[in-house]
Each structure stands twice: as C-alpha cells, then as structure tokens.
Prior knowledge:
- Helices cover 36% and strands 19% of the residues.
- The chain has 6 helices and 7 strands.
- Strands 1, 2, 3, 4, 5, 6 and 7 form a 7-stranded antiparallel sheet that branches.
- The N and C termini lie far apart (71 Å).
Amino acid sequence: TRMPGSQAHQLLHRLASLVLQKFKLGTDTSCQLKRLQMDGALPPRSRWVEVVCPLCHEIACFSVTHYCESLPQRQRWLVHADCLSGLMAERKLQPFWQVDQAAVLRTGVESGGLLPQLRLLLADETGGLLESELFQPEFDSGWQALVQHATGRTLAEQFPALVFIYPARAGKAVLDVGWHRDCVRLRKSLRSGLAPEL
C-alpha cells in the first residue's frame, strides 16, 4: 500500500479523503438517529414523534425540549427549549414567555392566510389563554422553518392551523407515556380556551 502506483494505495487514498470530508461536515443526524434506534437508546414514543429539532437540525431528546403538535396536520415533533427561546427573543416576546409555559401558535389568521402573520397565544398552568401577540416574521427566520415543518407550507401560503407548544421538560420525560397523557389533557383545555377565536 505504500507504493504510489498500486491499486490499493489509490483506493485507500480515496477512502481517506472521503472520511476526512465527512468529518469536516460534522455528524450526520439521520445516521446518528438510526444508530440510537438500533441500540434501543430512544424512548418507545420516539417512533411517533420526530426527535430532530426543525430549527437547528440536531437530535432534541437528550436536552430540555418542547413537545409540539399541529392541527389539522397531526404532526408531532420536538424543538429545543434554547432554540424556541431564541425565536421568542427575536420577536421581543421573551419577557412574556417562560419555558415551563404552554403556547398556541395560529397560522393563516388574517385575510385567509394571504398575509404571512402569526398569532401567539400564551397559556397559564390550567390551559387558560393569557396573552395574544400578532406578528409578521421575516421569511428567512426560524419562524418560517417552524411553520413549514408544522404545516408543510411556507409563511406566504398559509391556511388556518394550530401549533401547540407544550412546557419544556427533559427530552426523555417529554417522550414518556405519562407526559403524553398530560399533553392530551392540556390540549383539551387549550382548545376549549380557543373556542371563541376559532
């Protein structure tokens, strides 16, 4: 293999350059996720919930995270608490937002979705809605990524939909069956609080 003209030398040289190129790109989240699933390192509910954060594209079930779901699309995913806090700070919603607080994000709220505006409703511990903020995020912001992940549509082509963001917990706790039952109860409370607006 030390002989520059040998076939093995060229093959190992190409293999080494491929490994170095992949190493520069960093960890591949999909490969890492498959390995964790094969090792049984993820909670059972991870089969029904997307565990890759749509904002940073990293696995979110090993840190403090929010469980989210959208209606009517019935998507379920996790988003890092730090990533979501960054979005809230970007819109200057941070003073009102607590990581242990539930929220509802409504899309397509003005002009039948022709205007790319979102409404954020914050909830108290019982599911009652406290604050409401209407805002229009930039198209290249994390809000675009979050909304597109939830609804399958960009901010420019929205229709009425609801995104439920549940209080942040440790990643494995969020994927626990008991926590899912709490989410179902909280979702019912939030939907009853939303009834006048729907």
